Structure formats: structure tokens, C-alpha cells
Amino acid sequence: MIVETVESSVFIGTANHGFGQQAQEEIRRLFGNEAKFSHVVPAEIFLYSLPVGKMDAISKVLEQEPMFLRHMQPVDVELDWDGSVAALQAWIHDSFQLTEGTKLAIQIRKTEQVSQLSTGECKKALDSVLTDAYAIVPVAKDAELILSVYLTPERAYAGISKPTDNLSDWAGGAIRFRKEDGQVSRAKFKLLESEVAFGLDFTQYRSAVDVGAAPGGWTSLLLERGIKVTAIDPAKLDAGLLKHPNLTFHKKNASDVVLQPDSFDLLVCDMSWSPRQMARLVKGLLHALQSGGTAIITVKLMHKKPFQTVRELLEDVEPELVLQKAKQLFHNREELTLFFIKS
Ligand SMILES: C[S@@+](CC[C@H](N)C(=O)[O-])C[C@H]1O[C@@H](n2cnc3c(N)ncnc32)[C@H](O)[C@@H]1O
């Protein structure tokens, strides 16, 4: 008798609110119509089952990373949950075999409807299981493995994976930065997150142009990284930045500024404009970006179909700019962030 083993895997996927459908579409493109979905939090968090094993599924997603899937966590075990902490403790105790000394982090998420216990209480209860059963003291940073637990009123889901396999080592991909005193704008978080998401180190750059710079959150970060910055915006830049010795400010529309050829190794653009107009404007400035230079560009998704918007934008900026990665960041709203290298 031939016994056929049918491989499959289950994950919980998370996208920015309103973009769950796009994330599902990307997963369907990767795995075909056998990928099945069900909502956990409408338009944002969903369960999906795939016709391939867990590791194959993870590899495929990492190879062709979707733009809208912010985070994925494997579901290795499921529990019909009575809502009690004791049931969760027993379930986690019986479900996993862990090696003593593993640097493991526990990440708990839950739907709003689970109101009888906080994620903090739950984490504490599960931390104690790992410590008592496996002599593992869960870590907050630099984990080798993450035990992800997701709670809904009737069901609990848990899985173990490497932090990189989840697309983000933050629970649900919700990366947080501390708000600084006097921070110029919340937009700064987008550029901070870009550094992480695209694996960039801005201290390695010398000279940047910031198109659509006001009030100056991105400019302030680039200055902090030691870069000389040329900021362009008809609107006012934060007064505190203006006296910075490494800043040149053109209080103008970007189409009225003349930039020297090859004078920058970094171009950033965070204009809230129609994508095609923005693309044409950026294209007109590309002579100023050195070959091999980096461009980080926010694309407003407007009311158009997001995939079409990205396709059209790429048509406008290629072949001078070569796309490295496009991602909807946690700090993006109705937008995406694109990372390019100049050819
Ligand atoms: C979302 S804000 C940028 C926020 C900025 N990244 C920060 O961190 O503070 C968009 C900016 O683009 C500017 N902008 C729009 N059209 C422009 C153009 N044609 N040339 C230059 N700046 C423009 C607007 O004046 C506005 O200040």
C-alpha cells in the first residue's frame, strides 16, 4: 500500500488595518487557490492554511516577500479554549518539546473580545510554564525562537518559529519606537522603520536630498545619522533644524530647485502627492543621485488599486531606479514605502 503524506501548514497573517485583502491576494499568488483564509480580525488579521509544509511555506514567503503581509506566525497547535489561564498553561506544557537554555521569547496577542485577561498576565503564566518545565527563562531581546500565541474567545493558536521567519521580530509586526521630547513629526517613525525593514544603516551615507521634507522628521533623523542633508519643501521646516550646520534648506517646490549631478548618495521622498506626479518629479531629480545610490520613497495609495499604483509607479521610474523591496510598514497609513537602488 502506498501511503501518501499530504503536507499542509497553518499561519496567522497580519496586515495594516484595511489591507488584509491585499495581503491575502499576495499569499494566493504565491500558493494558488488551495490557500484558504478565514478572518480573525476583519480586514487585518486572518488565518490561512497552505497546501505545503511549514518550512517550505516560510521559505517561499521569505523569497518573494509580500508587500502587505506585515507579520506571519505559524500555528502548530490549536486549542478549543475555555478562557482560563490554567487551560493555556496545560496546553503549552503538553504541546512543545523545548531544549533547556533556548533563548525563547513569548509573544501573546488576542482579539479585543478576550477581555478576561491581559496579554501581560497571560505571558507571565506561560513564562512560568517554560521555566518550570524546561528551565527556560524567556527573553525579551535577541531570541533564537519565538513562541507566538494568539487568543480568540473560543480558540487559542500557538506556534514556534525563528524571529526572521515571522517577517518581523515584533508581535504582529507592530514595531514601536520611543517618541522623543520635541520630536518634529510622527513621520520620522516611517524612516526609522525603513532602516530596519530594508536593512539599511544610514550612518554609511554622506549626503542626502529630502524631497517634501517639512516639517522635518526625516531630515532630523538623517542629520542625527551624521549625513549632510539638502531639504526641499515650500512649507516651513522646524525652526530648531534650520541652524544645523549640515542642513541646506530650499524653501521651494522641488521642480524649481536645481541640483548638481551626482551630488547625493541618498534620496528620500515622503510627499503626500499623487504617485504618478510624484514619480515624474523624482525622475527629474535623479541626475543628482549617484549610480548605486539609495532612494526611499513613500507612495500614497489614494483610492486606486494598490498593485496597479505600484506597477504604474515602477513604469515611471524604471530603469533608472531598480526596486529592491516594497513594503507597507507598520507606520505607513494609506501608503507603501519603496526602497530602490539607482542603476
Ligand atoms: C507628509 S509631509 C512630509 C513629512 C516629512 N517626511 C517629515 O518627516 O516631517 C509632505 C510634504 O511634501 C511637501 N510637498 C508637496 N509637494 C511638494 C513639491 N512639489 N515639492 C516639495 N515639497 C512638496 C508638502 O509641503 C509637505 O510638507
From TrEMBL:
Q: Which Pfam families match?
A: FtsJ
Which segment of the chain is annotated as a signal peptide?
Answer: none
Q: Tell me where in this chain the Ribosomal RNA methyltransferase FtsJ domain is found.
A: 184-273
Tagged with keyword Isomerase:
no
Tell me which InterPro entries the record gives: RNA_MeTrfase_FtsJ_dom, SAM-dependent_MTases_sf
The organism's superkingdom is given as Bacteria
Share an example GO biological-process annotation for this protein.
methylation
Q: Keyword Transferase on this protein?
A: yes
Record keywords: Methyltransferase, Transferase
Name one molecular function that GO assigns to this entry. methyltransferase activity
Any idea what this protein is called? Methyltransferase domain-containing protein
